[in-house]
């Protein structure tokens, strides 16, 4: 049951083959067994069980709220959840319990979804494992064999999403299947009066058509994305995917995004600048961590922020403030904004020339083992890991990572599709077709759990922690 | 709240010089031409100085909710009771622009003859302070909502401050800006208490002051912050101009610094913790798209009127501006310009005046005089606002009718007014009746009284006949006393003169 599509589970719930409470308990059992992975910061068993009870009642009365009623979901810990601790994986917000729900969380709860808990992330979503902002939905999706959707900027409300970079952040969706992501996107999309950057046009939930004929499609392959650091496995899969489209009648062409090489630096300047600004509110006065020093307000600010933030966060704040200084603003921030415009225009030009979607890798390679990973500093890792994903955030475009195959090491590899702004439905339609062609093996959860148990017997991993 | 930059020109100094021999020039940017034959070499120590004053005015918009959050705005609410999640800068909250505030800013811009920018932008201004929970304030630094306006105002000049002359001041810009909270410093416990409802005071002014010799470049300016009343604003500016002139004449230099005004000592002092220049690290506010305003020509077809703001519509809805009102009052009621200023400068007074006019037969000049002298006098004495007045417009109108119809004398009217002020619920007519203040209308009775007074005071009559000019007044006074002040002195005088001429 835990490996099925959303619609299948929903149907099973409707038919009474399984109840929301049973589903909920199965999930929690798995969560407990995989606790050593430290994937959850907060597990909300009581809340979820209560929601499951209510969902069960509704199903009994034949009044289910929709496809998401009784479905377990998890929410990254940088989304505000009313009455449930929200930490952004930072000391700074340890113990912070928000009084309101993010709009996207509220929408999911209104549909009857069950909140399993708040998931882990790099502190304030600033690590190489991602930022919502540069690829942290697509990246983990690629590494874990999942579908990761980044909607168009302005389609989904950011109200309640604790921001990193307001002009690039977008709530992302992680599911096993494209159809599931489409269902969720249909629920989440739409104007929110509380978020002035959401578009006004009305959005209705969409059903993805099952595409059979791709001969009218034009797929663009950006040549600047063929970088030397790309692993041969990924390159090969990327090439095979292009071939696949071509063999099915689609037009596949090389395109150019000439300003790609400036993207990382541009992103870094704009990201750190906005971060420095967004982190200014964490001063220990209104909420969150407060140090013990009370000599003066300034001393309290300084100590609170030193204690509350790790050095990655502090480093970015300092960089950002540097770029925003009066004497630097023109040369760094304004320049970066101009380059950002050029990068966005690169995409516009390509889409205007008849291309429907772009096909690129999502990551340079499969997931790097932890010991290997920590050899490089955060900045380098960010630069490497976000290389294919962050230009999309700068341009505000929709993108999706689809799992394609397992590497020689048995680790998942994904590929990315990038669409036109607000053409999310078209993007997911093409992705769904591709998903069907690829037939990526569904994770066999029982095997996985058994493997984990045997690992657990090995004492070394008892103190294993992914949290930096 | 909104903020306006206003640049004034040289200030006219009032009062005697305080020891220094410096003089200021008054006037606009063009200097008066000095005919050659009156020019003389400046004496040592005597230099002409010109001061330049720029005001940064923080005015709170009167609206039901705040500029960016949905919170209510309510006078004297308990601390931190009107704070939304956004006001407390809870993580994940976003600003949402308040339509009414934008309209208020446009109205202000139009009233001040500004050019309204159809596109304006929002920025973040960063600094750390306890009453600024987000660590930045949302303002309009790059492109504000209105620019390049002007305000024509009147100023009392002349020996007795009785003449009004008009001047014009430039308004550099008007920008929408987020209000901060309010800090209360508790020095005893070394604590600061923060109330995030809103900042203190409906009006706060920062004054930028510099001095220079005419013809030379502008001097270094200082900023005097957080002045809360017009009176202290004037004092602070006066003091600061003096201070700068003294400093420069003594060979010193002016620092570009921030100062505050010490109300008790009446002087400006440097602010301790503003060391070095603040870099506010301005950055565009990414959560607010550009603010677009429309007018009749640019309004998109089929636009939802709830979603757009039409400048032309707002212009049509503007109430009559003060200068127009004053002009109208002078024309319509034949009052002096300075009267029109007074009527408009007191909250509620114009309405009160107009209500009296509506209900009374008395001529406007009389009404003006009673409202501005008697009524306003009583208010000021007891430090009351017009709305707190115990005397209503109707009551005053009734009183003036009695006066107009000569039912009572003017001194009786003053007595009635005093009684009305006690607010015992009696009408003017009732008071007149109770206190027997009616003017004696009976001509015959009056003549008899005059006759008997003259008979009772032969000496005074003799004085009158001798030609003593003051004697007649004594007679009038005696008759008035006899009538318990219920007779019109003019009438008494006429009767006496007639009777005297007969003897």
Automatic annotation (TrEMBL), chain A:
Gene3D superfamilies from the UniProt entry: Amidase signature (AS) domain
Ranges of residues in domain Amidase: 33-127, 128-428
Assigned EC number: 6.3.5.7
Places the protein is found: Mitochondrion
Catalytic machinery residues: 76, 136
Principal EC category: ligase
Pfam families linked: Amidase
UniProt keyword annotation of Cell membrane present: no
Keywords associated with the record: ATP-binding, Ligase, Mitochondrion, Nucleotide-binding, Protein biosynthesis
Reaction catalysis annotation: L-glutamyl-tRNA(Gln) + L-glutamine + ATP + H2O = L-glutaminyl-tRNA(Gln) + L-glutamate + ADP + phosphate + H(+)
SUPFAM superfamilies to which the protein is assigned, alphabetical: Amidase signature (AS) enzymes
Molecular function in Gene Ontology: ATP binding; glutaminyl-tRNA synthase (glutamine-hydrolyzing) activity
PANTHER family on file: GLUTAMYL-TRNA(GLN) AMIDOTRANSFERASE SUBUNIT A, MITOCHONDRIAL, TRANSAMIDASE
Stated role: Allows the formation of correctly charged Gln-tRNA(Gln) through the transamidation of misacylated Glu-tRNA(Gln) in the mitochondria. The reaction takes place in the presence of glutamine and ATP through an activated gamma-phospho-Glu-tRNA(Gln).
Subunit comment: Subunit of the heterotrimeric GatCAB amidotransferase (AdT) complex, composed of A (QRSL1), B (GATB) and C (GATC) subunits.
Name under which the protein is recorded: Glutamyl-tRNA(Gln) amidotransferase subunit A, mitochondrial
Organism this protein belongs to: Propithecus coquereli
Underlying gene: QRSL1
UniProtKB/TrEMBL annotation, chain B:
Predominant location: mitochondrion
Keywords noted in UniProt: ATP-binding, Ligase, Mitochondrion, Nucleotide-binding, Protein biosynthesis, Transit peptide
InterPro entries reported in the protein's UniProt record: Asn/Gln-tRNA_amidoTrfase_suB/E, Asn/Gln-tRNA_Trfase_suB/E_cat, Asn/Gln_amidotransferase, Asn/Gln_tRNA_amidoTrase-B-like, GatB, GatB_Yqey_C_2, Gln_synth/guanido_kin_cat_dom
GO BP terms: glutaminyl-tRNAGln biosynthesis via transamidation; mitochondrial translation
Catalysed reactions, semicolon-separated: L-glutamyl-tRNA(Gln) + L-glutamine + ATP + H2O = L-glutaminyl-tRNA(Gln) + L-glutamate + ADP + phosphate + H(+); L-aspartyl-tRNA(Asn) + L-glutamine + ATP + H2O = L-asparaginyl-tRNA(Asn) + L-glutamate + ADP + phosphate + 2 H(+)
Matching SMART domains: GatB_Yqey (SM00845)
Domain of life: Eukaryota
EC number: 6.3.5.-
SUPFAM superfamilies: GatB/YqeY motif (SSF89095), Glutamine synthetase/guanido kinase (SSF55931)
Localization: Mitochondrion
Subunit organization: Subunit of the heterotrimeric GatCAB amidotransferase (AdT) complex, composed of A (QRSL1), B (GATB) and C (GATC) subunits.
Membership in a protein family: Belongs to the GatB/GatE family. GatB subfamily.
Protein name according to UniProt: Glutamyl-tRNA(Gln) amidotransferase subunit B, mitochondrial
Gene name per UniProt: GATB
């Amino acid at each position: 049951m835990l490996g099925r599509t959303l619609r299948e589970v929903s149907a099973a719930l409707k038919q009474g083959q399984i109840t929301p409470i049973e589903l909920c308990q199965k999930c929690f059992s798995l969560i407990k067994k995989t606790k050593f992975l430290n994937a959850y910061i907060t597990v909300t068993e009581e809340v979820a069980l209560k929601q499951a009870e209510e969902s069960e009642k509704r199903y009994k009365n034949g009044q289910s709220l929709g496809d998401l009623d009784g479905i377990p979901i998890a929410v990254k810990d940088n989304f505000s959840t009313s009455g449930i601790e929200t930490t952004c994986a930072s000391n700074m917000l340890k113990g912070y319990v928000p009084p309101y729900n993010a709009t996207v969380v509220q929408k999911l709860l209104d549909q009857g979804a069950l909140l399993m808990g708040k998931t882990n992330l790099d502190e304030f979503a600033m690590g190489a494992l991602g930022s919502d902002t540069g690829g942290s939905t697509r990246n983990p999706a690629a590494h874990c064999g999942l579908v990761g959707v980044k909607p168009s900027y302005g389609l989904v409300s950011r109200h309640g999403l604790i921001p990193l970079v307001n002009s690039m952040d977008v709530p992302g969706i992680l599911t096993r299947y494209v159809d599931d992501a489409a269902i969720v996107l249909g629920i989440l999309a739409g104007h929110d009066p509380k978020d002035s950057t959401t578009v006004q046009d009305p959005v209705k939930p969409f059903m993805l058509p099952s595409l059979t004929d791709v001969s009218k499609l034009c797929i663009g392959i950006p040549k600047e994305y063929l970088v030397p650091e790309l692993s041969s496995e990924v390159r090969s899969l990327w090439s095979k995917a292009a071939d696949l489209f071509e063999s099915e009648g689609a037009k596949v062409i090389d395109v150019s995004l000439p300003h790609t090489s400036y993207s990382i630096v541009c992103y870094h300047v704009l990201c750190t600048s906005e971060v420095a600004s967004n982190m200014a509110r964490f001063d220990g006065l209104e909420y969150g961590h407060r140090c013990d020093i009370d000599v003066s307000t300034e001393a309290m600010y300084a100590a609170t922020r030193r204690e509350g933030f790790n050095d990655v966060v502090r480093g970015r704040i300092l960089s950002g403030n540097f770029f925003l200084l009066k004497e630097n603003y023109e040369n760094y921030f304004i320049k970066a904004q101009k380059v950002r415009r050029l990068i966005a225009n690169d995409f516009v030009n390509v889409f205007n020339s008849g291309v429907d979607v772009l096909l690129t890798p999502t990551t340079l390679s499969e997931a790097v083992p932890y010991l290997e990973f920590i050899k490089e500093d955060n900045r380098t890792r960010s630069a490497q890991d976000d290389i294919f994903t962050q230009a999309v955030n700068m341009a505000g475009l929709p993108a999706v990572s689809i799992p394609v195959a397992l590497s020689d090491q048995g680790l998942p590899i994904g590929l990315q599709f990038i669409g036109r702004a607000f053409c999310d439905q078209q993007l997911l339609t093409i992705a769904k077709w591709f998903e069907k062609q690829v037939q990526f093996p569904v994770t066999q959860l029982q095997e996985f759990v058994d493997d984990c148990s045997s690992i657990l017997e090995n004492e070394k991993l008892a103190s294993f922690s992914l949290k930096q | 709240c909104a903020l306006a930059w206003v640049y004034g020109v040289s200030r006219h100094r009032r009062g005697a010089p305080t020891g220094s021999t410096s003089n200021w020039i008054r006037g606009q940017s063009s200097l008066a031409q000095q005919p050659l034959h009156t020019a003389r070499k400046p004496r040592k120590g005597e230099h002409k100085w010109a001061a330049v004053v720029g005001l940064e005015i923080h005015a709170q918009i009167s609206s039901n909710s705040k500029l960016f959050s949905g919170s209510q705005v309510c006078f004297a609410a308990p601390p931190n009771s009107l704070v939304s999640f956004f006001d407390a800068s809870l993580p994940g909250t976003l600003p949402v622009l308040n339509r009414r505030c934008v309209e208020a800013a446009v109205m202000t811009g139009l009233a001040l003859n500004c050019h309204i920018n159809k596109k304006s932008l929002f920025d973040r201004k960063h600094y750390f302070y306890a009453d600024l929970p987000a660590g930045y304030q949302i303002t309009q630094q790059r492109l504000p909502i209105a620019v390049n306006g002007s305000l024509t105002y009147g100023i009392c000049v002349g020996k007795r401050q009785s003449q009004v002359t008009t001047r014009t001041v430039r308004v550099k810009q008007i920008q929408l800006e987020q209000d901060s909270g309010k800090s209360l410093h508790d020095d005893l416990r070394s604590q600061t208490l923060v109330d995030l409802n809103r900042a203190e005071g409906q009006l706060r002014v920062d004054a930028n002051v510099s001095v220079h010799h005419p013809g030379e470049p502008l001097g270094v300016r200082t900023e005097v912050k957080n002045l809360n009343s017009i009176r202290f604003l004037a004092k602070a500016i006066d003091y600061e101009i003096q201070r700068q002139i003294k400093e420069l004449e003594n060979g010193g230099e002016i620092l570009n610094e921030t100062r505050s005004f010490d109300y008790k000592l009446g002087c400006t002092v440097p602010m301790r913790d503003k060391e070095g220049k603040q870099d506010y690290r301005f950055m565009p506010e990414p959560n607010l798209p550009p603010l677009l305003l429309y007018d009749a020509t640019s309004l998109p077809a089929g636009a939802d009127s709830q979603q757009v703001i039409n400048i032309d519509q707002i212009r049509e809805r503007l109430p009559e501006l003060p200068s127009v009102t004053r002009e109208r009052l002078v024309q319509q009621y034949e009052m002096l310009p300075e009267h029109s200023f007074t009527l408009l400068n007191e909250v509620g007074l114009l309405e009160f005046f107009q209500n009296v006019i509506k209900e009374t037969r008395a001529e406007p000049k009389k009404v003006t005089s009673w409202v501005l002298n008697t009524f306003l006098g009583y208010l000021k004495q007891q430090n009351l606002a017009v709305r707190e007045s115990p005397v209503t417009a109707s009551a005053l109108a009734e009183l003036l009718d009695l006066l107009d119809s000569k039912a009572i004398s003017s001194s009786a009217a003053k007595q009635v007014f005093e009684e009305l002020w006690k607010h015992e619920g009696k009408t003017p007519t009732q008071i007149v009746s109770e206190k027997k203040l009616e003017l004696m209308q009976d001509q015959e009775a009056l003549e008899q009284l005059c006759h008997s007074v003259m008979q009772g005071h032969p000496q005074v009559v003799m004085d009158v006949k001798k030609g003593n000019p003051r004697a007649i007044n004594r007679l009038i006074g005696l008759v008035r006393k006899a009538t318990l002040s219920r007779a019109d002195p003019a009438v008494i005088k006429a009767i006496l003169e007639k009777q005297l001429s007969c003897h």
